[in-house]
Specification:
With about 290 residues, the chain is of the alpha/beta class. It folds into two domains: about 5-175, 3-Layer(aba) Sandwich (Rossmann fold), CATH 3.40.50.720; about 180-285, 6-phosphogluconate dehydrogenase C-terminal fold, CATH 1.10.3660.10. It has eleven helices and eight strands. Helix 4 links the parallel strand 4 and strand 5. Helix 4 runs parallel beside helix 5 and helix 7 (about 180-210) crosses helix 10. The chain starts with 6 loop residues before the first strand and ends with a helix.
Length: about 290
């Protein structure tokens, strides 16, 4: 690593932010880690060793940090950019963990300019349950960690290269994408599965209340498909608001697919869908 982050600030110590702190310590990071969150959460993070010190406010948390990781919901990330411009030192690198990137990267360029340097980030390593109590030092191991530079030239910046090395240090695998491509891919690969899981669970909740549909008969298949329905709305509200066009397109494509399967329930066309789905699953197993 040609550039060292001697002081790292983590804003938001929930699942992702807390896991960043725990992972840094587990993998031998020797610099200072400062955290900022609600007092109750900060107390848990300090007790677990995820951070060395807690800041009383946002400004003091980011002041003097070489690397600032904004690990909050998307709306809070957007709102924090002005505070970052006012308080982060010019030579710092600022990154986030938001599940959408277009609006964040565009707003970061408008507000921050080139200093402090902003690098979009998205670890593909979440869980259906949030909060520091679910943080894990192993969360990022073998997971893809998407980096979305504001401009292609940012990949040459020594701070960006250093962060990519830090991502590898905690066991993740960096993957570079532009913000637009990231958001379209996430609409199909992350946001659509979440809404499908939530919608199915909501449907069954309604049906079980109206008709004889005992949930005691739900087996592992139903439980697996609806696992994501445990995810909190507070996080997904901002994701949907900042990726609405891509999510709508993904939902329309799924509706078309379901309509196609509905029409072909009694013929061999349905078999083609099963075969195509099986090939994708085999491909996913190979890439893992």
């Amino acid at each position: 690593m040609t550039y060292n982050f001697n002081r790292i600030s983590i804003i938001g110590l929930g699942l992702i932010g807390g896991s960043w702190g725990l992972a840094l310590r587990k993998h031998g990071y020797r610099g200072a880690v400062v955290g900022f969150d609600r007092p109750k959460v900060l107390k848990l993070a300090l007790a677990a060793g995820a951070v060395d010190d807690g800041a009383r406010d946002f400004a003091s948390a980011v002041r003097g940090a070489d690397l600032v990781i904004i690990a909050t919901p998307v709306g809070v990330i957007l709102d924090s950019l002005s505070q970052l411009k006012a308080n982060a030192k010019p030579g710092a690198l600022v990154t986030d963990v938001g599940s959408t990137k277009r609006l964040i990267c565009r707003r970061a360029l408008e507000i921050l300019g080139d200093e402090p340097k902003f690098l979009g980030g998205h670890p593909l390593a979440g869980k259906e349950r949030s909060g520091f109590e679910n943080a894990d030092a192993k969360l990022f191991e073998k997971a893809r960690y998407v980096l979305t530079p504001v401009t292609p030239d940012d990949l040459k910046d020594k701070r960006v290269k250093a962060f990519s090395s830090l991502v590898e240090l905690v066991g993740a695998r960096p993957f570079v994408a532009d913000p637009q491509s990231h958001d379209r891919a996430m609409a199909f690969l992350s946001h659509l599965p979440q809404l499908l899981s939530t919608g199915l669970a909501s449907l069954i909740a309604e049906q079980s209340g109206e008709d004889f549909l005992p949930t005691e008969m739900a087996a592992s298949g139903f439980r697996d498909v609806t696992r994501l329905a445990e995810s909190p709305y507070d996080i997904w509200r901002d994701i949907c608001l900042t990726n609405i066009e891509n999510i709508q397109s993904a939902l329309e494509a799924l509706i078309d697919k379901l309509e196609h399967m509905k029409v072909h329930l009694t013929d061999r066309e349905l078999q083609r869908e099963f075969k195509q789905a099986l090939k994708l699953r085999e491909k996913l197993r190979e890439t893992r």
